[in-house]
Design a protein that fits this description.
By secondary structure, this protein is α/β, with parallel strands linked by helices. It contains three helices and 15 strands. It folds into two domains: 119 residues, no CATH class; 93 residues, Nucleotidyltransferase, domain 5 (2-Layer Sandwich), CATH 3.30.420.270. It is 16% helix and 41% strand. The strands form three sheets. Strands 4, 5, 6, 7, 8 and 9 form a six-stranded mixed sheet that branches. A six-stranded mixed sheet has the order 10-15-14-11-12-13. A three-stranded antiparallel sheet has the order 1-2-3, with no helix packed on it. It comes from Mariniflexile jejuense. This is Lipoprotein.
């Protein structure tokens, strides 16, 4: 059995006589604070590995809710292939499948000083892609180059060099009249902490008439 304890931003995992630490990504607030019937996977930041990453999924049970604990120092280029691997494992499970079981990223919820969770069950990741926006329709594309370098592209214009502080204000103005679908594209060098910060920003923004697409694009 593994013993897991939360000390602010880190998960300390004691297993088979070895100690490993995951620095969890921080979020200001999560609507999900408790999940039952769970098993966990861990993506460790490990500089001794060729890709600086080690995946531990030994105790995952396909019929449970999965808590995926990703070290916040990993980049999307490092973490997303392993996350996709876990998603495919669960989606393609032929036996002992539970259609109600979901997948969550584990975070450190600063508002509660405890664990918080972001669901990603139905997210589909596309690597090395940044789609062109059609010249008609109700699509908005958001390029996240960094926390403070964000662009919003409509069929008619691109608003560039936005930062975390003014991004949501500009986005609300661009979506306040008609229904829009947001396509989110993330630079692969973003850390997992950056990714969670931006995801949380969108999820807590109370955007009206907006659908956030389930397909997310990771570009180089």
């Amino acid at each position: 059995m593994k013993f897991i304890s939360l000390l602010l931003v880190s998960l300390f995992i004691f297993s088979c006589g070895t100690d490993k630490v995951i620095q969890l990504p921080e979020i200001s607030h999560s609507d999900i604070s408790e999940i039952n019937d769970v098993s966990a996977a861990y993506l460790f930041y490990d500089e001794t590995q060729p890709d600086s990453l080690e995946l531990n999924r030994k105790n995952l049970i396909s019929t449970t809710n999965w808590l995926v604990n990703v070290d916040k120092r990993l980049t999307l280029k490092q973490a997303i292939p392993k996350i996709k691997f876990l998603q495919d494992k669960k989606r393609n499970a032929e036996m002992h499948k539970n259609e109600n079981a979901k997948n969550y990223f584990t975070c450190n919820d600063l508002s509660r000083k405890n664990l918080g969770f972001i669901e990603f069950t139905n997210i589909f990741y596309h690597q090395n892609k940044n789609p062109l926006l059609r010249t008609e329709g109700k699509l908005l594309k958001i390029n996240f180059f960094s926390i403070n370098d964000i662009s919003i592209t409509t069929p008619y214009e691109t608003i560039s060099k936005l930062n975390k502080a003014n991004f949501i204000t500009v986005l609300k103005k661009a979506t306040n009249k008609t229904e829009k679908t947001l396509i989110c594209c993330f630079k692969e060098h973003l850390t997992f902490q950056d990714y969670i910060t931006l995801k949380s920003l969108l999820l807590n923004s109370n955007l009206k008439n907006v659908l956030i697409a389930k397909d997310e694009f990771i570009f180089n």
